[in-house]
Amino acid sequence: MTTSRTWFGAVVFALMTCGVLATPSASFAQVEVTGVIGGMLGGDLNNLILGTSTIETAYENGPLYGARVGWVGKFGGAEGSFVHSPSGVKLSLPNRPIGVDGKVYYLEVNALLVPIPGPISPFFRAGLGMHSYDLDLNISTVTVTGEGVKKLGYNFGGGVKINIGHFTVRGEVVDHLTTIGPDDFDFGEIAEALGLDDNQQLHNVEISAGIGIRF
């Protein structure tokens, strides 16, 4: 319950901050609703770059879909975003018949910066929210379903918008980051068996496109 209150308070604070700092005045802002489709890039970038992890922390390639809604003006805006991928995190220990597979959900609030407004507008985004992992533990031929992991995480990325009247075509690349540790799993000693004896930062890279409408 304490964790839920902490998460709720953090999201409310982020939403207020986005609204104050990123949203233009009401006379210039428009409501924008966007449908999103894309994919999750396989591979944890942090482990691939550093090459120091003792366990494989890789995301399987998978489809992604969701929606975004917010207030967008000339130079920036604020939005809420929900995306889901049915092919999610995979954690496994080399040469061991143990693995964790799951689905991922991201419910986030974001601030947008549009440095060059116009018909073709590059943009940057950053935000935070609830990152949810529904996990299944696989040991040989036995599968155990856990209650999942829900953590406060953050994201950053960027992309390009093409504005055609009241319609918007949008493409972007976003890195979702979540810090997890053994206390986050309801599998007990399994987390330790997987090598999760300390916190690790998971990356999930979203490559997506969307079509939106402004009101």
Unreliable parts: 15-27, 45-49, 52-59
CATH architecture: Beta Barrel
- Count of DSSP helices? 3
User: What's the overall average pLDDT, rounded?
Assistant: 75
CATH class assignment: Mainly Beta
Distance between the termini: 38 Å
What's the CATH topology name?
A: Porin
- What's the story with the biggest beta sheet? 8 strands, antiparallel, barrel
| Derived structural class | mainly beta
Strand element count: 11
Enumerate the strands of the largest sheet in spatial order, edge to edge or round the barrel: 1-3-4-6-7-9-10-11
In short:
The chain is mainly beta and 215 residues long.
Summarize the helices and strands and which ones pair or pack.
Blueprint: H1 2-21, E1 30-41, H2 45-50, E2 56-59, E3 62-72, E4 76-85, E5 89-92, E6 98-113, E7 120-139, E8 142-145, E9 149-164, E10 167-180, H3 189-193, E11 200-214
Antiparallel strand pairs: 1-3, 1-11, 2-5, 3-4, 4-6, 5-6, 6-7, 7-8, 7-9, 9-10, 10-11
Which keywords apply here?
elongated, Porin, single chain, 3 helices, 215 residues, 8-stranded antiparallel barrel, mainly beta
Verbal overview:
Mean pLDDT is 75; it is low at 15-27, 45-49 and 52-59. Strands 1-3-4-6-7-9-10-11 form an eight-stranded antiparallel barrel. With 215 residues, the chain is mostly beta strands. The protein has helices at residues 2-21, 45-50, 189-193; strands at 30-41, 56-59, 62-72, 76-85, 89-92, 98-113, 120-139, 142-145, 149-164, 167-180, 200-214. The longest helix is centred in the N-terminal third of the chain and has 20 residues, at 2-21. A hairpin with a 5-residue loop joins strand 5 and strand 6 (98-113).
